[in-house]
Amino acid sequence: xxxxxxxxxxxxxxxxxxxxxxxxxxxxxxxxxxxxxxxxxxxxxxxxxxxxxxxxxxxxxxxxxxxxxxxxxxxxxxxxxxxxxxxxxxxxxxxxxxxxxxxxxxxxxxxxxxxxxxxxxxxxxxxxxxxxxxxxxxxxxxxxxxxxxxxxxxxxxxxxxxxxxxxxxxxxxxxxxxxxxxxxxxxxxxxxxxxxxxxxxxxxxxxxxxxxxxxxxxxxxxxxxxxxxxxxxxxxxxxxxxxxxxxxxxxxxxxxxxxxxxxxxxxxxxxxxxxxxxxxxxxxxxxxxxxxxxxxxxxxxxxxxxxxxxxxxxxxxxxxxxxxxxxxxxxxxxxxxxxxxxxxxxxxxxxxxxxxxxxxxxxxxxxxxxxxxxxxxxxxxxxxxxxxxxxxxxxxxxxxxxxxxxxxxxxxxxxxxxxxxxxxxxxxxxxxxxxxxxxxxxxxxxxxxxxxxxxxxxxxxxxxxxxxxxxxxxxxxxxxxxxxxxxxxxxxxxxxxxxxxxxxxxxxxxxxxxxxxxxxxxxxxxxxxxxxxxxxxxxxxxxxxxxxxxxxxxxxxxxxxxxxxxxxxxxxxxxxxxxxxxxxxxxxxxxxxxxxxxxxxxxxxxxxxxxxxxxxxxx
Length: 619
Known about the structure:
Distance between the termini: 35 Å
Strand order of the largest sheet: 8-9-10-5-11-12
Low-confidence stretches: 595-619
CATH topology of the largest domain: ABC transporter transmembrane region fold
CATH class of the largest domain: Mainly Alpha
Number of helices: 22
Helix content: 55-70%
Number of strands: 12
Oligomer: single chain
Radius of gyration: 36 Å
Structural class: alpha/beta
Strand content: 5-15%
Shape: elongated
Largest sheet: 6 strands, mixed
């Protein structure tokens, strides 16, 4: 996983682009915020004028009505403008959230496999939901709050000066600079504590996702209490992080209330004396107190604004950690003029591969050729690099240059989209989406007609099983296909690959969960299909490998132990001969002991083979 420092997209660049596109809308919204707050600040002044009008000897009821009507009109106008600015600004910030989340998901889809070794699912979910929301709030209520504070304080102070002069006004706003200084001091603490809070949320999300997915394993080992204890610890960590945030934020509001409460009390005394002496009208006294109350709320809001902005900054940095990652597998060397593979013959020359951040060789000096339409069986013990080779052919991992060729093209020069459209893959670890069986089979192309879906299911020997379900092909499977058996999932995955009508077919031990009779049925169906595509079949079963044109046998170190057809290796390869002898000896032992031979492997699962692995794995 590499980090791109120049030219990479960031959350800031995405948001700036949206601001440029919606400048008029957002600008109009900010203007309406200012107008709304200016209107709100007229209420105390109008109320003071109304009180003075009532006290005037020559007061006329029509003036009272006019002032009361003006107050009502100002309140209604403020309500309408508030509705408009919320629609304009909050609607825009929702589009920020939408675009950020879509861009993040697109980025995650483009990243290479090794990225997901560092970041777990729960953490990525938290960033996609919680962090994106925090950024939205930063540019919504966070930015609007700043405008609120500036406008309300500026207009209120202006009218306070008009009512009582500079001296009393300056005395009333003395707490503001000290409160702002306090907030500047605590902002770094807010940022650090919010990051810890987000990390604790990520940990909880990961645990919930992991346990729900593996609930059958948890129950099988009776670990409900143990897992609940672990979850309780994670929840308490989150609670602790939230309490630290709460303690920090709780300090500011009481300080603001205390400071302005003291100022308010002092002004009541001195202002009241001024009213009694006649140096200050009762209306100005009421208006001043109204403005003082009006100032308290925006100043008190500063603490929330600081929290929102610090949270937003933390979340933007967390999002940028992902946006700045460059996929190791990309089209930087691809030939853009290549739009079709004329041939799908595969040639591997002296391939040696290390996994990222590992010094151990997963594959060592692998070389073979497979003509178009040929079938290659790959065998070997667990950890010998069989699946690694398949992943390199699909460019899930980045192969070293000039070692793998498809159709005569060095693999990194083939555009990723073209390469992967040409390949259908059936993984060892089957995966189905929480969708109908029909949609799972047609996953590669939603426009594939049902007849083709059914035809692929028949070839995979799963059509009868599907039709036996209450809703047939419309049956919605559980998460990761949990409602189906292992064999059913494998065969649906095979159907998903076959319906794609691929040029290259990769089968990674995809018959391990079916019985020998079903295996022979599927292999019989696949023989005809394999004549139209180049096939690599990772298998532990000699019966499957025997149908291949060539067999590549790997040893525990990822080296070539043998290469050739079944008959050639049987006659000339000591390693392959030893494998067959182990299989034959195990069958005889099981038969003599009267033990039932595994229908999946032909072996009792407890035996060990000549490669230092379970005999079940060898087959």
